[in-house]
């Protein structure tokens, strides 16, 4: 796995300001070509990330038997242990809209006592991510056509979010130059907002199949388009394949916030989005059926996490 390393300089958008016409065309291009961009002025302080990182560390440092109390065979299923997504990946899921309750419940199970500091911080983070996701969907819809943000706002009204706190621990003695912390995949979201720490390792696959590094960029967050928006936009927005590579023997911390359609939403690209004379790339499908398809095709196959909405609802056209 030692390919020459190339990085991609993603455009950065100030999410606190209205987009200028030239920024809008840069954003449209980024969404079409890569499905990835950076945002800045997102309103989350360095201090909050520091706290989140250290609280998360205290959780991931717990013995495995304790962590499994919130694992896949528990009632809450919030903790994903090593060897599910990859041997080097573990994560804790915090679900919205009540991020406080979800974090409190996991902390109670894991630490044997409620941890209100942890829950308060996740409540704040979940709330901020929810607002950011709404703004991001708005600007991304603007890329599809003039006034499309207002026209299609209601389709996204029932979206919901969940957060994944991720700890990557590379092998102690690394014989290979790099290992996959998380294999190639696309996200099952409308949009995903990722915070990656300074270790780096997030990569996006170009249309030609080349892996490009998305280097950590001070005070910015990475945004990527997910499968649900790719399907809804008739592939005008790209949900691109990405993965995480571990190159150094240090742990990597990241937070991925997934903003998704409600489970029973019928995903069907609107006529105006498809455009006259164009064919629909996907058959209409119910959101939860796609989620189930992915769940069933990925279980235990961490070497090849690669199924997408094309495999599920593609018309072959
Ligand atoms: O850890 C990261 O930087 C990205 C994680 C990711 O792609 C995911 O959880 O879907
Ligand atoms: Fe992802």
Automatic annotation (TrEMBL):
Family stated for the protein in its record: Belongs to the iron/ascorbate-dependent oxidoreductase family.
Keyword annotations: Iron, Metal-binding, Oxidoreductase
Official protein name in the record: Fe2OG dioxygenase domain-containing protein
Metal-binding found in the keyword field: yes
UniProt xrefs under PANTHER family: 2-OXOGLUTARATE (2OG) AND FE(II)-DEPENDENT OXYGENASE SUPERFAMILY PROTEIN-RELATED
Record keyword Lyase present: no
Pfam families tied to this protein: 2OG-FeII_Oxy, DIOX_N
Listed InterPro entries: DIOX_N, IPNS-like_FE2OG_OXY, IPNS-like_sf, Iron_ascorbate_oxido_reductase, Oxoglu/Fe-dep_dioxygenase_dom
Gene Ontology MF, one: metal ion binding
Domain Fe2OG dioxygenase: residue ranges: 159-262
PROSITE patterns documented for this protein: FE2OG_OXY
């Amino acid at each position: 796995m030692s390919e020459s390393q190339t990085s991609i300089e993603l455009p950065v958008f100030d999410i606190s300001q209205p987009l200028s016409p030239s920024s809008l065309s840069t954003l449209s291009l980024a969404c079409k070509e890569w499905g990835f961009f950076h945002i800045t002025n997102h309103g989350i302080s360095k201090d909050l990330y520091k706290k989140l990182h250290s609280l998360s560390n205290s959780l991931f440092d717990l013995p495995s038997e304790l962590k499994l109390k919130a694992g896949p065979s528990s009632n809450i299923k919030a903790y994903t242990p090593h060897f599910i997504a990859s041997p080097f990946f573990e994560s804790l899921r915090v679900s919205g809209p009540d991020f406080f309750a979800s974090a409190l419940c996991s902390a109670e199970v894991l630490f044997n006592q409620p941890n209100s500091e942890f829950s308060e911080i996740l409540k704040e983070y979940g709330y901020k991510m929810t607002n950011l996701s709404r703004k991001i969907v708005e600007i991304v819809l603007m890329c599809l056509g003039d006034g499309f943000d207002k026209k299609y706002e209601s389709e996204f009204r029932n979206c919901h979010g969940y957060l994944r706190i991720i700890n990557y621990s590379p092998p102690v003695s690394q014989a290979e130059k790099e290992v996959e912390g998380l294999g190639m995949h696309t996200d099952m979201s409308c949009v995903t907002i990722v915070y990656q720490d300074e270790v780096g390792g997030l990569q996006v696959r170009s249309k030609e199949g080349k892996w490009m590094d998305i280097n950590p960029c001070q005070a910015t967050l990475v945004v990527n388009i997910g499968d649900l928006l790719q399907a809804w936009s008739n592939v005008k927005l790209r949900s691109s394949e990405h993965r995480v590579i571990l190159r150094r023997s240090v742990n990597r911390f990241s937070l991925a916030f997934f903003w998704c359609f409600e489970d029973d939403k019928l995903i069907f690209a609107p006529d105006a989005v498809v455009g006259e004379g164009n064919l629909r790339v996907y058959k209409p499908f119910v959101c939860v059926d796609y989620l189930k398809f992915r769940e069933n095709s990925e279980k235990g196959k961490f070497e090849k996490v690669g199924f997408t909405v094309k495999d599920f609802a593609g018309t072959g056209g």
